Every structure is written in C-alpha cells, then in structure tokens.
Amino acid sequence: MGTVAAILSSKGRSVITISPQRTLHEAVDVLSSRGVGALVVTGVDGAVLGILSERDVVRVLGKEGTRVLDNTVARIMTARVKTCTPFDTIDDVMEMMTAGRFRHVPVMEDGKLSGIVSIGDVVKHRLAAFETEHRAMREYIATA
Fold it and tell me: Which residues touch 38 (CB under 8 Å, ≥6 apart)?
C-alpha cells in the first residue's frame, strides 16, 4: 500500500509556490516554465492560503476571457485546500483526490508545507508496487 512519505522520498519535497498578490498572468508563466500543473499559494509566513491549478486557470479564462489575466492569484485560487500528511496512505490520498475531483494535494508536516503529490505521482507509485508484486509472484512460481 505505502504512504505519502514513500512518494516524497522518490520525487522529492520541493514545492513551487506563488504569492496571492501575483497576477494570474505571472502564475501562468510559472506553471508553463516550471512544467507543473498547480502552484501552492502561500503567505509571507509560508502558510498555505490556497492552490491554483491549470484547471482553475482554464475555467476562469473560459468564463471571463483574457482580461482575467490581470487579476490576482488570490481572486482565482481555490482557498479551501485539502491537504495530507506524509503518514497518510496512498489509498486514502487517491480516494480524497477522486472524491474531491482534484489532482494535487499539498503535504503538511508539523503545520508546515513539506511537499506536494499529484495524481500522476500516486499512479506511478501504485504501478511500481504492482510491478514489484507481479515480479515477486513470477519468481515464486518459477521456483515452486
């Protein structure tokens, strides 16, 4: 099964953040240049204030047009962020993502941002676990 900590140990704990005062245009530049699907919006003290995903950007652009690019991230971001801890199981995080229909979950440890996991990270980890189990079964059968 595994925990979020297992994902973080292989992918790392770096998180790309953005200030809520930045413009949506600046956020789009960061999403594009860094090749990520979401930015965690943090305050000066590092507190998680929200999250801004590519989906958020597309939805607001579709609704309001390009003039929205001058708005602040704070206006567009999702303020009610679901988070997890390194000790949460991967199954629990996957269930949370599926139920909430979101693809990125910030990881909190001791009240501080300590990583982020995406649905891609979860799927990659699960596939690796299935492959390991499959290989072990084949080896067991071959030696039986």
Answer: 31, 51, 52, 53, 54, 103, 104, 116, 118
If one compares 132 and 23, the residue with the highest pLDDT of the two is 23
d(CA 113, CA 127): 26
To which H or E segment does residue 96 belong?
helix 90-100
The answer for residues whose C-beta is within 8 angstroms of residue 50's C-beta and 6 or more apart is: 20, 40, 41, 73, 74, 77, 78, 79, 81
Distance CA 96, CA 101 (A): 8
- Written as one letter, the residue type at 39 is L
Q: For the chain, count helices (H), then strands (E).
A: 6, 5
Q: Using one digit for the tens of pLDDT, what is the confidence trace for 104-122?
A: 999 999 999 999 999 989 9
The residues, any chain, with a CB within 8 Å of residue 87's CB and separated by 6 or more, are: 3, 4, 5
pTM here is 0.86
Q: Which two tokens stand for residue 54?
A: 């590519």
